[in-house]
Amino acid sequence: MSGIFISFEGPDGAGKTTALKTLMPLLQAKTNQEIVLSREPGGSPISEKIRKIILDIHEEEMDPRTEALLYAAARRQHLIDVILPTLQANKIMLSDRFVDSSIAYQGGGREIGMKEVANINDFAIDGHFPDLTIYFDVTPEVGLSRIRKDHEGEMDRLEREAISFHNRVYDSYMKIVKDNPDRIKTINAEQAPKQVVSDALDAIIKKFPNIFNKGE
Ligand code: TMP
Question: Boundaries of each Thymidylate kinase-like domain copy (predicted)?
Answer without folding.
Answer: 8-199
